[in-house]
Each structure stands twice: as C-alpha cells, then as structure tokens.
Design brief:
The protein is α/β, with parallel strands linked by helices. It has twelve helices and 14 strands. The strands form three sheets. Strands 2-7-6-3-1-8 form a six-stranded mixed β-sheet. A six-stranded mixed β-sheet has the order 9-10-11-12-13-14, with helices on both faces. The two termini are 18 Å apart.
Length: 330
C-alpha cells in the first residue's frame, strides 16, 4: 500500500493520544506493513479511542476526540511485538473517535489505510488537518525512492518549511537535469504570483514542446481570481518566447508546481478554463511527482523521453507520484 495512514486504537481514557508516548500492544504480533512504515519515518497516523469493558462494566470512550499523530519510531521486542513511538500533532476537536473509526473501516487495533480511504473520511467529517500533519502524508508516497537516488539539494523540496526561493532554485535545477532548456522569467520584485520560468525541449527534438511554470511554496489552490492573470501571462509568453527558442507556438503548455493542491476539483475546473481560453495544455504537479520524475530520468536515461513527460499534460490534471508511477513504469 502506497502512502498509508497508520490507524492506532486504544482503550485508555483522558489524554492518552494527546501526549507523546511509546504505544505497546503486548497481545499482538507485528504486522508486515509496519516494516515499510518504519523505513519511511516520520509517518502520519491517527489515534482513536474505543469503548472498553472494565470491572464488568462498559466504559464508553468512542465519544472522545481522536488525534493526528506523528510516528517517530517503530521497534519490535524480542518476540516480535510492535512498539510505536508517537507525538501528538493535533487534537480533532468536534470529531468523535467512533465516527472516524466507522469511516476508516479499521477493524483491528493497528491498521494501515490508504490515502483514498483517509481522504473520503476526512471529507465526510469535515476534517482540516494542520499543515504540519498533512506534510507527512504528502511526502510519504515517493520519499523512500527519491531519498535513495537524490542528494540533499533536491530533497529540500520535501522539507516541511521549504521557502519560495529554495523551491524556485530546486525546480529549475530539476527541470535542467531532466534535459530541458530553462529560462528564469522572474524579476527580483516579483513573488509567487508571477511565472517563475520558461522551459522548452532542446533544438532538434522530435516531440518539441515548451511550458511556462509557476512555483508555490505552500499548498496551492487555483481560484477564479488567479485565472485571468494566468491566462494573461500564458498569452504573453506564447507570443514572445517560442521564437527565441525555435519551438512551435502551438506546442504551448503551462505548469503549476506545489507541495499539494487544495480543493482539487475547483483547481481542475479552473485549469480546464485556462486551457480552453489560452489553447494550452496545463498540469498541476506535486513536489514528490517532480522528484520521482527526476529519479526515473536517472534510472532510465535516454529511454525516458520528452514525449513521456509531455503525456502528463494529457493525463490527470493533478499529477502526484502515483500518477507518475502509473504513467511511466520503471
């Protein structure tokens, strides 16, 4: 299972999940999925309270608020039982553990649920995780692979508090490393509202194309107010830059690169509107997807072509590491 959320249950009351601790399950043996999570720490988790029987009476705990947790350590004791070190990131006030448990469908004391299952539960209960916790989920999908292949310069994109200048520099370097001819289009007085660069395939490339790209250091939502400005600068570069780089004007693309995209349905609707008016294909690319593309370029070399990259503009509007993995095996 890629990008899992670990679900942990407890019959302890009061502040059990709201404090840092090592959680032990003495009656349970270790699960295989814990080994995968242990190799990719810190990891996101949810702590739930469940009803328990004590002294012959039912003690109701399911009404207590669950907690969003950061898993910082997983170890096995001498007989293979799991011990999990957690830190509380946020208490989900206004949400009952029993309700979240029902939506997650976690029928064991320790479970790993998929990103899709978590997203469905989150939306159903109106949960808005803090950025500190969401970041754990965003980077967990491609992190093991990219950390194996890439150095600290590129891995700065996975830092929780990466700043905008760093994002711009790393994205530009990643696109150059993938073979694109990159031109910085940002003036010193401009910020994240302006396009950051223009990238095109090198001269003589059979599947020539080009794109204007825009970097974001925070989770991004392409709202209606941004649509006009985006269409305007795409039209400008569509008119001025292709001639300078000898690429066809009709092969226009545009790319937003961010750690994540909030309210994906609205982002996709507005992206489609920009495509229709600007007559240019667009793509919303996450940081982990960009780094995974770079890893695949290092692995595959010439076998990963510019045409392969261009297919992402014609696939899912929001391109995550999972989309890259499905579109470009190897």
């Amino acid at each position: 299972m890629t990008n899992p959320v670990l679900v942990l249950k407890s019959g302890q009351s009061d502040s059990w999940w709201y404090e840092s601790r090592e959680v032990s399950y003495p009656k349970l043996m270790s699960y295989d999925f814990l080994d995968e999570i242990a190799g990719n720490l810190p990891a996101p988790a949810v702590g739930l309270y469940v009803d328990r029987h004590k002294d012959g009476r039912l003690q109701a705990l399911g009404h207590l608020a669950p907690a969003l947790l950061r898993v910082t350590g997983i170890r096995k004791d001498a007989v293979g039982r799991p011990h999990i070190r957690v830190e509380c990131v946020s208490r989900l006030s206004g949400v009952k553990s029993s309700d979240l448990d029902r939506f997650l469908g976690s029928d064991r004391w320790i479970t790993a649920v998929s990103r899709d299952t978590w997203d469905q539960a989150r939306q159903a209960l109106g949960i808005s995780p803090p950025r500190e916790w969401s970041h754990l989920l965003e980077i967990s999908e491609a992190a093991p692979t990219v950390r194996e292949f890439l150095g600290p310069h590129y891995l700065r994109l996975l830092d929780e508090k990466v700043d905008y200048p760093t994002v711009r520099a790393v994205v530009s370097d990643a696109l150059c490393a993938m073979g694109y001819d990159v031109t910085d289009t940002t003036r010193p007085e401009q910020r994240e509202t302006s396009p950051d660069g223009f990238a095109c395939t090198p001269a003589g490339e059979r599947f020539a194309h080009w794109f204007v790209y825009n970097c974001k250091s925070e989770p991004f939502q392409l709202v209606q107010e941004s649509v006009f400005f985006t269409k305007t600068y795409i039209a400008k570069y569509q008119r001025d830059l292709p001639g300078q780089k000898a690429v066809p004007a009709a092969a226009a693309r545009f790319l937003f690169i961010a750690p994540a995209f909030d309210n994906a349905p609205e982002c996709e609707r507005n992206l489609v509107e920009i495509e229709r008016v600007a007559r240019a294909r667009g793509c919303l690319l996450t940081f982990d997807a960009l780094l995974l593309l770079l890893v695949k370029k290092l692995r595959l070399g010439y076998r990963l072509t510019f045409a392969d990259f261009d297919r992402l503009f014609h696939s899912a509007n929001v391109v995550t590491a999972s989309v890259v993995e499905a579109a470009i095996p190897g």
